[in-house]
Structure formats: C-alpha cells, structure tokens
Design brief:
Keywords: Hydrolase, Metal-binding
CATH class of the largest domain: Alpha Beta
CATH superfamily of the largest domain: Fumarylacetoacetase-like, C-terminal domain
Distance between the termini: 45 Å
Pfam family, one: FAA_hydrolase
Family: Belongs to the FAH family.
Largest sheet: 11 strands, mixed
Strand content: 25-35%
Bound molecules: zinc ion
CATH architecture of the largest domain: Alpha-Beta Complex
Domain Fumarylacetoacetase-like C-terminal: 75-278
Oligomer: single chain
GO molecular function: hydrolase activity; isomerase activity; metal ion binding
Order of helices and strands: EEEHHHEEHEEEEEEEHEEEHEEE
Length: 283
Amino acid sequence: MAIRMAVRGGRAHLVVGDRLVDIERASGGTLPADPMEALARWDDLRAWGDGAGAAGEGEPYDVRELDVCVPRPRKVFGIALNYRMHAEETGAQLPPSPAVFTKFPSCLSAPTADVVLPSEFVDWEVELVVVIGRGGSRIDESGAADHIAGYCVGQDYSERRVQNAGARPQFSLGKSYDTFGPIGPAVVSLDAFADPDDLGLTCVINGETKQDGRTNDLIFGVPELVSRLSDVCTLEPGDLIFTGTPSGVGQARKPPEFLRAGDVVESAIEGIGTLRNTAVERR
Ligand code: ZN
C-alpha cells in the first residue's frame, strides 16, 4: 500500500490522513526515527505502514511544522531543459542527453520555508523530485522503479545572473543559495499514483498560475534518468533528482519576471501536495 513519509522535529513520521504517526515510537523501536535511515529501510517501512494506518494512530499537525522530508542526501541532481515546451521557450535545442547539474544539499529547505532573495534575479521552477530508496549502480531502466522510494514536490529556485554567468555557464551555484531547494511536503511511494509518469504540476505566484504542465512531457523520463545517473554515480538512499521544470519560468516571459519580497510561491503536484514559500529580502 502507498505510504507518505514526512519529517517533524527531525523525526520520520507517516502521514495518515490528517495525522502524523511517529515511526520509531509507533513501531516500538523496530524502525528508525532518522529519516535517512528510514529511507534506507523503505521496504520495511512500507510493509509496516499498512498496519499503522489501519490502527488510526497519530496526532493532528500543521504543514508549517514539517521539516525537509529528506534532510541529508549525499547527492542532489538537477536536470536542465527536460520538458519540451520549456526547452522551446528558452530557445535551446532539445538536448541529446540529460543536461545535469548539482544543487548542493545545503540549499534544501522545508515545504513552507521562506525563500531568501540574494538579488533581483531569482526565478521559479516547480519540479517533480525523485527520492532514491534502494541504492545501486548501473541500474537498468526496467528496474529503476525498484530503486525509488517515492516522489516529492520541489522548487528549483534559480538566480539567473549567477546561473548564466560566463561563456560556459555552470548552473550549480546559481541554484544552490540557501533556501533555494524546498522539497516536500512528504515522500510519496509510487503506488500512490494511477500513473506515476503522468502527473500534473503547477506553480502559482500570488494566486496567478505561472506554470501548468504534466510530467508526461519529460524528454528524459524518470527511469532513464535513474539509469543514466547510476551509470556514473552509485546512487544511495535519499539521493534526490530534480527532474526539470515545465514552461512558464520568469526569465522566458516578455518582459522577464523575477521574485520580489512578499511574493508567495505555491508549487504543487497532484497526489503529492503543495509547497508554500514566501520570498523575503536577504538580511
Ligand atoms: Zn530546474
């Protein structure tokens, strides 16, 4: 059965309806409190999670209490230009292979954390984020799903001036300012979705829809990304893949638009949930 794992107070919880169940306590200590350890034991967690839901345990919570659902990944990959319509709006050629960059893990933040603006050039990118469960290297596309714990929503906030600086832009710094990687609100196992390869995702700013796409428009789908990345790097539990953003980003608009202090950014994927970040000045 599908499970949803969220983190509060540094401890892994199952989301059961509108309640949180502390995994370590409710399992009598047989499962870990640490979210990274819980991801490494995802199959055990799923087997146990059915019973926890049926028992109706847990306590009510507010989404603002949730922490980063994957707090300490060793690797956070980003994929540029992975939606056909987004590649077209940037004027770029469709890439022959995935264009991969790094979001350094220190940029990760909670689902309702403020996004701190270092400049007037910060842009939005709602993204499906893959969370690795079982590690591995040289993973076949056909077996990729067995290595995925689940999906969460991510925002790939991007400082466009830093991202595009220099003759051969490298994206990683412009996408790694502190607070530039909110994820969550929970890691949702793939069996929660009727079709995990066709999910609607939206980015709404101050109530206005800026991005509205579907993951079936991905150029390189999730199984291919897992296979290609694992051919280079051994994937480990909790590693994250930001899979790319659909069209509607600020820098492609005419005139270009960027975030201003006070803007409220809501990033949502159907069947997973919503991130809600308020932009604030850097102090
Ligand atoms: Zn992105």
